[in-house]
From TrEMBL:
Keywords: Biotin, Ligase. The lineage of its organism: Bacteria, Bacillati, Actinomycetota, Coriobacteriia, Coriobacteriales. The gene is birA. One of its GO terms (cellular component) is cytoplasm. It comes from Collinsella aerofaciens. Gene3D superfamilies: Bira Bifunctional Protein, Domain 2. This is biotin--[biotin carboxyl-carrier protein] ligase. Its EC number is 6.3.4.15. NCBIfam families: birA_ligase.
Amino acid sequence: MDAKLTIVDVTGSTNDDLLEAGKQGAPHGTGLAARAQTAGRGRRGHKWDSTAGNLLLSIVLRPRVDPTKYSGLAAVSGLAVLEALEKQGLANEIGLKWPNDLVARGRKLGGILVEAARDNEGKPFAVCGIGVNVNYVPSEVPDGGLPAIGLSDLNENVPTVDVLLKGVHHAIVNAVGTWTDLLNAMEEDAGPIAPVHDDYVAHLNWIGEHVIARSPAGDELARGIFQTVDAFGRACIETEDDLRSFHFEEASLRPMGK
């Protein structure tokens, strides 16, 4: 695999394949897509239904930034996916859900999984996995998760998955390059999503609404108004007592009453 986009019929997990390729030195921008996966996964180890008919893509990313800033890649990639869909006239109803999902009509349209690693020379890299429901909508919903929706449910005329793949691959590689340049021009202590902060928050669902923050185990951590996400990617919730911030590894959000 080179820095171009390779499409295969089936594999276990495109992220696993590119984590291995990245360790062997695969360059920035190397993309791998599959018609179907047998071992797709999402955040926190959740199974990702990878039945044929949807967009299943992973990309090797080697941004020349402090690896501790890699946590900004999910936001950057999410915005890039939206941009690619917008160019196809498909993004009218689509927004982002903190920290790494695409949503439409209160349902989950897609997800992004960024995994960081080091190659055999000790150089850091990340693999960004993107899954978007296009023609097939999974019926199984993870615990506490949103029901699914597909692009074909939102639009009558959806391009082929291959057309979407090329657009999303190109958009993410370009967006990561721009983010890298902007971040490196900022102060050293700038937050990972500082270069895209305003755009990211503008596309987030539930800003200004009442939400519940739950731990990975499902325990309630806080409830209040979802005010914003800060430059470090933390969700900021105004409770009755104070303003609380949660890192994406600590919590997930749900609208109150849902």
